[in-house]
Hints:
The chain is of the alpha/beta class.
Amino acid sequence: MDFATFLKETLTPMGLDWRRFQRRSIQRRVMARIQELHIASFRKYASRVSECPEEKARFRALMSVTISRFFRDSDLFRTLRDQVLPECADRHLPDARLLVWSAGCASGEEPYSLATLWRAYFHMVPIELKILATDIDPHCLRRARLAEYGPSSLKEVSRELVQTHFESRGQKFRIRPEIRQMVEFRAHDLITSDIPGRFDLILCRNIAFTYFLPSWRAEISRKLHSALEPDGFLVIGQNESLPAGSENYFQPRGTYIYRRKG
Length: 262
């Protein structure tokens, strides 16, 4: 069994588009896990994954594709700052809590970017912003909770924001405590886990509508609709689109930004 066949047999039942995972980095991770288990072939490891729920979860985490940095897609964050967050805030005034879900948060750059944005531009608004950030990869979640990042992760962050919202730690920068406390990190699988709450804004970028099979993309679209408050906003990836039928659930509000219907 070659690596492509292995991916097809193991990932298709999980709802994942195996063709998206034919990367050398992922193959190296799988090979390292196979060696760690002293297994002789892809075929034998495929059997282990199918028979052992714990190994299936471990293998699923190996499939994480983490390409992230602060304020990735800067135009989106400007739109969030100028349009989406003010509209969400207006619905909650004078005093309330604004709830956001960052689904597939990787190492935490996205939710911390949003928290930084709120502290920098909405600190006078009498509303508390709370962000739930979820991912399937425990290694990514550990890094996110540590909240330390190298300069390459901050290349789209202005010098002013770095100075006011990060602490210098040698060659790295750590998010300040008042930003960290706005974000809760939790393990979550978009396919198998229940909806973790109801939210005013959901960011589900570069994960479900890129790496999942079409049938599961439709199911995730329905899940995200159920997880949004009335008139809540959904943000997807710059190169993604919602599956057919999603027009029953969402109304476009700009490039890759949608508003909940119903």
